[in-house]
Amino acid sequence: MDIVSIIIGVVIGGAAAGGIVAMMMKKAAEGKGNKIIEDAKAKAEVFRKEKLLQAKEKFLQLKEEHEKVINDRERKVAELENRVKQKNQSISQQIENAKRKEQEVDKIKTTLATQLEIVESKENELESAHRKQVEQLEAISGLSQEDAKAELVDALKDEAKTNALALIKDVVEEAKINANKEARKIVVQTIQRVATEQAVENSVSIFRIESDEIKGRIIGREGRNIRALEAATGVEIIVDDTPEAIILSCFDPIRREIARLCLHQLVSDGRIHPARIEEVAKKTKRQLEEEILEVGKRTTIDLGIHGLHPELIRMVGRMKYRSSYGQNLLQHSREVANLCATMASELGLNAKLAKRAGLLHDIGKVPDDEPELPHAILGMKIAERYKEKPDICNAIGAHHDEIEMTTLISPIVQVCDAISGARPGARREVMEQYINRIKDLEKIGMTYPGVEQAYAIQAGRELRVIVESGKISDAEADTMSFNLAEKIQTEMTYPGQVKVTVIREKRAVNYAK
Questions:
Q1: Closest by alpha carbon to 361, among 348, 374, 371?
Q2: Which pLDDT score, from 0 to 100, does residue 196 have?
């Protein structure tokens, strides 16, 4: 019992002591809280003052910037007002000037009106005086005004014609002096630089054989071999008494060449019968096509021409087996190409373009289709089809004046074609055509009145006209020479040029008896 009491007492005493301790701790906590609150209040007061100071500084800064913006705007407004004032002053001044000019114009109009009235009155006076003078002149001369005008016009026409002819003659002579020298120099240099070879081909080829015994083998039993050969090649084979020779006749040189090569292979092989002939003919045609293509490629390489369409290259190769007036077409085209390049270089033009046009200028003579078209137009269409340049197409189409020349290359191709075809030995002309051309030349000379005789001399290169001195004057002789040259150039086709010489002489004949 006593122990329990003691324990209870201890517990109660401990509780009382714990309460005292708790009270003390509470008071200490309250003191710390008050101190913390006071410190916080002090810090808050300091923070508030700092923020107020920052706000005041920001306000002052914004106020300063606002005042600056306002000042700038006021300054700009003042400047705009000054400009407007100046513009108003300028406009006012311009208006005043315009009013002053209008007043001056009104004065000028008034002055002009007065002067016009004076001029009209003077014109009326002059017109009346002119009428009086005309009436007096008509009365004196006995001619009306219209008749006098007609006589005056006729006289002026004759005088103008004479002066024009004299002027034309002077101009032509001056042009010859200045231009002929350079033109002759260019042409001569061009011709001298080009070495040419001649190849004259006919419609007949000769195939040489070692002995006449081969003729019988070529003919075959009952002529079956020769008939098979003619059917396979399209060439007439003439086996006659000509020693050691067989004649191949055909207008197409390619077919003649195929027949010649077939005969050469058959004779060398010794096997000659219809089946073998057909086999060799087909093989020879293929070989010749390959050779034609190779000739075209070799020609373009020799001339330094690149980028030609394969079909154009093949046509160039076929030129080897074409001729024009006896002149080999490929040799002629190569010659024209070299001439064009040389002449273009002398004139400062594109030599490669001129050489290309010169090689292709007669390409229209190769195909067999569309024979009704001139070869120049056909060649131009072929070149356009294979995407050649417009300058080259125009040069091809215009080298015989079928179309208008639009580039400087075109006259060069035309001139070089004439140089290659018209020089001595280049071409042959059928005798009948030559004689007809000479006769036509003399007929043109005899068409003019007052002509006694007209002779074509120097193989048709000169027309010599003899006129009657009593009917044709010296001035009219000059006119006749000029007109004859123009007419020949317009109506005739000829190689080279034709010189026209008009001869007028006075002969006084008397007899002593």
A1: 374
A2: 40
Going by C-alpha positions, the residue among 350, 328, 333, 332 that lies closest to residue 341 is: 350
Q: Are 451 and 461 in contact (CB under 8 A)?
A: no
Distance CA 447, CA 219 (A): 59
Backbone conformation region of residue 458, classed left if phi is above 0, alpha if psi is from -120 to 50, else beta = left
Q: Which residues pair with 453 in a beta bridge?
A: 466
Mean pLDDT over 271-288 rounds to: 83
The residue to which tokens 């001869």 are assigned: 503
Angle at 326 between CA 323 and CA 329, to 5 degrees: 30
Tell which residue, 458, 506, 499, has the closest CA to residue 481: 499
Return phi, psi of residue 457, to 5°: -125, 175
Q: Where are the beta strands (DSSP E) in 347-397?
A: none
Widest pairwise Cα distance in the chain? 221
Closest CA to 359 of 396, 388, 386: 396
| pLDDT single digits (tens) 354-393 | 899 888 888 888 876 656 788 888 889 888 888 888 899 9
Q: 411, 405 in Cβ contact below 8 A? A: yes
Is residue 383 within 8 A of residue 360, CB to CB? The reply is yes
% pLDDT > 90, the chain: 2
The whole-angstrom distance between residue 388's C-alpha and the CA centroid of its chain comes to: 12
CA angle 133, 136, 139 (to 5 degrees): 150
